[in-house]
Amino acid sequence: MACSVARGDDRTATLGAALDHLTVDLHGRALVLTRLAQPAPVSAAVVHALVDLLVAGGCTEVVVAGSLSTADRDRGHHGVAGLARTAGLTGRTPRDNAYDVVDLHASTVPAPVPAGSVLAAEPVSAAWVRAGVRVVLGRSVTDAADGFAGCLSTLLGAAPEVAGADPADVVADLLDYLPPALAVVDAVVSSHGPDGARLVRELATGTVVAGTDALLADCVLATLHGEDRSASRLVERALRRLGEPAGAVVGDLAPFIGWRGVHPLLRAAVRRAGADRPVGRVLAAVTGGPDPGADPVDPVLARMRLSVTVLADWRGWASPCAAPGCSSTMRCRVSVSRSTRTTVWLPPVQKMSSEPEIVTSELMCAGTSRSAAQCRSTRPCSASISKAYCRNQAMPQCRQSPLSAGLTRNDTA
């Protein structure tokens, strides 16, 4: 059996049930690479349950490991010890099994990979290379740029960031040459919405995914999210490089009830912005927060955080439709232009067959119903509208509703 899905609210029992279906050689020193990134780390209860099970299964020592990424630093964190402490990792489980918490990047060795690898001549964690049993422990969250995140995004922590390299290539090489023997996803309480990794919206999903193939575990997680697995650039690249993961999957694969994923339009917008690395770093730093245990951020970033978080909040992307003349009983998405204080109503997600065109002042003024010939603006309007869904079928005549119509207080804050 390559992957198992277990359901239940008891973390220890559910994790045990998931591991019962797998055959893993547990021996020597086990290293558990864990998602510690705030504000959505793996639950300390799941970490402790896994440590207890590894010890009971034959491991003589268990080390819980993490790494500090650039994104963590940008959000005000300074070390793995601080992240672990904030996540509730005390160094001892309720069953009195002791474990150390280590920074994977504290000691590195040249990557033992072929010359053609993106990791060739690059450092990787010495602890990860030398571990008797490598384990990666991720959490079930959505990600604005990649749709979802599970084990592969956590596995990236096994190597320091490689300048100029695509993280998708790095994770594919780690899977190929330094793979974990066991991959676990904590989905007992998930974080969904437009960017659950940074803007926490918890949902009790009562599930643990465990497998001997981290790529397959993430593919299964995508199914539980009701998401296309190729939405994740990490998963898509690994599938292209390594092929379809082999092995059977056992368990309930029904998508989580009440799950809200990342809309493709938001994901595309975040990726376009992130193509400029400094802009991508700023967006990642100011979405959600402030994080528990983080230092205060720059005052400018703090002000940006208020605006970006409101615009990213999924409640604003699913406000009841209040567009004049709209007869839809479905919940329509909304795009807000703060500069013109207008709202452009977009069709419900289920009706979208392709991305809407981006409308600039050359086509229509976003602030009024005037035609482009009447518009005197010298700046592009920040409106997105689907011409096919314009009620009047003529964009210059398409009326726009006031910002306050149909929005909640939180949306207009």
Strand content: 15-25%
Secondary structure class reads alpha/beta
Distance between the termini: 50 Å
Mean pLDDT across residues = 80
Rg over C-alpha atoms, rounded to the nearest angstrom? 23 Å
Question: Percent of residues in helical segments?
Answer: 25-40%
Count of DSSP strands: 16
Number of helices: 12
Q: What is the element string, with H for helices and E for strands?
A: EHEHEHHEEEHEEHHEEHHEHHHEEEEE
Main sheet overview:
9 strands, mixed
Flag low-confidence runs.
316-413
Report on the structure:
- This protein has 413 residues and is of the alpha/beta class.
- Helix content is 28%, strand content 19%.
- The chain has 12 helices and 16 strands.
- The strands form 4 sheets. Strands 1, 2, 3, 4, 7, 8, 9, 10 and 11 form a 9-stranded mixed sheet that branches.
- A hairpin with a 3-residue loop joins strand 7 (133-143) and strand 8 (147-149).
- Helix 1 (11-20) packs across helix 2, helix 7 packs across helix 9 (233-242) and helix 11 (277-286) crosses helix 12.
- The termini are far apart.
